[in-house]
User: What shape does this take?
Amino acid sequence: MTPPVRVLPLEEKELKQGVLGLVLALVEIIRDVLRHQALRRVEGGSLSPEEVERLGWALQELDRAIEEIKEELGVGEAVRSVREGLDGVVEGLLSGMVKDGS
Amino acid sequence: MAPETPPPEPGLYLYAIAGGGEEVSLGPIGLEGKLVFTVPYRGLGAVVHCGSAGLYPSPGEEVVAGWVLAHHRVVEVAWGRWGVVLPAAFGLIVKGEGESPEKNLLNWLERDYEKLFSRIEQVRGKAEYGVQVFWEPQVMAQELLNSGPLLSLQQEIQATSPGAAYLLREKLKGVLERELEAQARRSFQQLYALIKPCAAEVKIEKLKKSEGGRPMLLNLSCLVDQGKEGELGGVLEGIQGRQGFGVRFTGPFPPYSFANPG
Assistant: This one.
């Protein structure tokens, strides 16, 4: 009996890229939400200057980390295309809602 | 007329309604070299060729491109000959539906005669021009950054600590985006106001994809009196000269966008 042959190892690599792209895209989206929330809090005036500084620093470091990871894994393009695809889905949903008159 | 490839039902392919009432042959200048002639009705002439009620099944892209070119050429010939045409959209075929296609065509001309005649008179002596204005958002953005509120925000960013600066930069991005959008809207309205007086009629067309990195800001089809195109050209030259704007001016064309009697 012959051992099972691993077919198309290239496919596995692409699959990994796809999954990592998706994960990083989601991380970026969460980062965007955090950033948006942070801005609102800063503008709301509820934070001390030290808190503002720490918040800004943390987000900046998060940005850097995300960019580094994307570069190491080579998933920059994959992340971009996932986000563009998601934008399309959201737009589709929104226009559907507007049509329903809701 | 011998039947074509299926469907064998006969039809008249319509190129345009011309402002001339004589029965004339324009020669074999139509799609696939078909003989083009006119069907007259009270001072108007439908420019047609005799064919089947459907176009050939599944033609290739190149074939269709050839047909579209032939369609335009016939419309231009009719325009040159009679001075005024209402071009038909590509692919319009008058079928029989119980009568001969010619009878059906004449019925339509009779029914819509007033509208067609009045439309012909409205486009007489005029040509269509395409006006597209492109803009460079970076140039616009730079101008905005050098002004009032955005300038002071930038100064704030430079003066403050790195973490706070990061957050302020994000804020700046948001403000800049909103300002750019507002500026684009204002520019559109300004440009439209400059162009409108030069044309008898103006149609606002959909914006097409950007080319060479410059997004399209304005896409108009203008119906212009022959003789007044210089005035429009002058206005467009002025716009072209402005920082961050580019213009594409095309024409004269037969009045494709203004042919509908509405």
